[in-house]
Task: structure prediction
Amino acid sequence: MKEDFDFDRVGKRLPYTAPDGFLDDMENNVWETVKLEILPSKPKRNFRLWYSVTGGLVAASIALLVVFNLLPHDSSNSFEDVEKAFANLSSSDQDYLFATYQYDLFMNE
Amino acid sequence: MSIKDDKELVELTAKEPEKGFRYLMTKYKEAVYWHIRRLVVTHEDAQDATQETFIRVFRSLSDFKGECTLRSWVYRIATNEALRLLDRYKKEERVSLDDSSSELSNLMADEFVDYNDLEAVKLQKAILSLPTKQQLAFNLRYYNDLGYDEIAGIIGSTTDGVKSSYHIAKDKIVKYMNANN
Result:
């Protein structure tokens, strides 16, 4: 009678082989694929947007300064110039200007 | 580095993805590759399915709830990947998943098979001639030393079902080996 096959004769031996180091290569391939999905990507600086926003803010600031006359100016010098110019006028012209602007709200505030 | 349990490994991967990834790969890549290789036979297919397995594992690791062990979960994904690949080939050939002719012809054609070890080749032929469930039950028990309940979780069966599949598989293999002696 023929003897039954004994598993111990083969054990866990496999007839299969595989190229050296392929598991390490595969591990790196998998990492390259999944790392982009797992790791939070660093936000890229959008220079175009950055320049647009900065430029816009600078332009808006200048516009505000101009509109509300917030730019520093030497008021004493300009007043002296006006005084000098007024002194050079003839008395009739001076009287006319007085009569015209004495009730001007903005000049007399 | 020592990781106490699955939970710690999942937490490590969330905190330090590459460290967790390398640890998990070191622990499972070889076992998973050989599990898949025994099912799909050729090195190229086993490599593709193993790679896909680990991509899936890492994509869904944050969803792992610990309802089974991480090992069972990884083996389940690996088994599904291998069966998916075989299913695709069977559909192309229009034959049933339990028709082992294509794996047997792969065994004869693959360049990464040592034909000098005739008995080992014959044992693989015997295993490949089994229906898929019996193959899985036998391989996971015989080669991976997994418990019947764990195998049941991996292949979606009952513990008794796995026990029965394993013993039937073993008897069939003995018969095959005796007949082809």
User: Anything to note?
Assistant: Chain B has two domains: 1-95, 114-181. The radius of gyration of chain B is 17 Å.
